[in-house]
Design goal:
The complex is a heterodimer of chains A (about 120) and B (about 110). Chain A has about 120 residues and is mostly beta strands. Chain A contains no helices and twelve strands. In chain A, the strands form three sheets. Chain A has a six-stranded mixed β-sheet with strand order 2-12-9-4-5-6, with no helix packed on it. A four-stranded antiparallel β-sheet of chain A has the order 1-3-8-7, with no helix packed on it. In chain A, strand 5 and strand 6 form a beta hairpin. The radius of gyration of chain A is 13 Å and the shape is globular. In chain A, about 40% of the residues are buried. Chain B is built from no helices and ten strands. With about 110 residues, chain B is mainly β. In chain B, strand 5 and strand 6 form a beta hairpin. A six-stranded mixed β-sheet of chain B has the order 2-10-9-4-5-6, with no helix packed on it. A four-stranded antiparallel β-sheet of chain B has the order 1-3-8-7, with no helix packed on it. The radius of gyration of chain B is 13 Å and the shape is globular. The chains are: A mainly beta (about 120), B mainly beta (about 110). At the A-B interface, strand 5 of A face strand 4, strand 5 and strand 9 of B.
């Protein structure tokens, strides 16, 4: 069965960095583009970034462009999100949902990783 | 970038009611529109894709319609377990923007 396990969250100070990981199983990871989506406490869903199956294409939301980097290691079935210059407004639960093979809507969601940005 | 606007932001309805939530895209997105349900404390669940296709396992009281810029999620015969926040999402191209959400409560 499909599993997506986000990890690497924690409490960090503004201006610092953090790297999230998403370990996947139950599907052929290297054939899927993958995304990060976040949800601030009590707020709505915000799409963050996408990476193509081979890693050659990446696109970011305006709110994180230039600070966050999405990457993947297909040999490890793992997706990453490197977050730099973190701001209080980046505080959220970060998800790496599984899209369908040909479209960017999300069939499966993990439990997410909580990132808290506070001094 | 294309903006996705949902209305209303919240609504309250009675068990058995018919409920309609709308989602408007600032530019045409054909039928590249999905709807999700997020119950309190849970992760989102996919309800509808391609504007009107029901995801497997989703009750038939949920339906979607629309194309281009205007879309609708309809829940007929509202049930207590439908209390949730509902989100639309465009997926024609990046950015894959979500609507701001509609919180549905039971009267």
């Amino acid at each position: 069965q499909v599993q997506l396990v986000e990890s690497g969250g924690g409490v960090v100070q503004p201006g610092t960095s953090l790297r999230l990981s998403c370990a996947v199983s139950g599907f052929t990871f290297n054939t899927y583009g993958m995304h990060w989506v976040r949800q601030a406490p009590g707020r709505g869903l915000e799409w963050v970034a996408v990476i193509s199956s081979d890693g050659s294409y990446k696109f970011y939301a305006d709110s994180v462009r230039g600070r966050f980097t999405i990457s993947r290691d297909n040999s490890k079935n793992t997706l990453y999100l490197e977050m730099n210059s973190l701001r209080p407004e980046d505080m959220a639960v970060y998800f790496c949902p599984k899209p369908t093979l040909r479209a960017g809507y999300f069939e499966y969601w993990g439990q997410g990783a909580l990132v808290t940005v506070s001094s | 970038d294309i903006q996705m606007t949902q209305s209303p932001s919240s609504l309250s309805a009675s068990v058995g009611d018919r409920v309609t939530i709308t989602c408007r895209a600032s530019q045409g997105i054909s039928n590249y529109l999905a709807w999700y349900q997020q119950k309190p404390g849970k992760v989102p669940d996919l309800l509808i894709y391609a504007a009107s296709a029901l995801q497997s396992g989703v009750p038939s009281r949920f339906s979607g319609s629309g194309s281009g810029t205007d879309f609708t999620l309809t829940i007929t015969n509202l049930q207590p377990e439908d209390v949730a926040t509902y989100y639309c999402q465009k997926y024609d191209s990046a950015p894959y923007t979500f609507g701001q959400g509609t919180k549905l409560e039971i009267k």
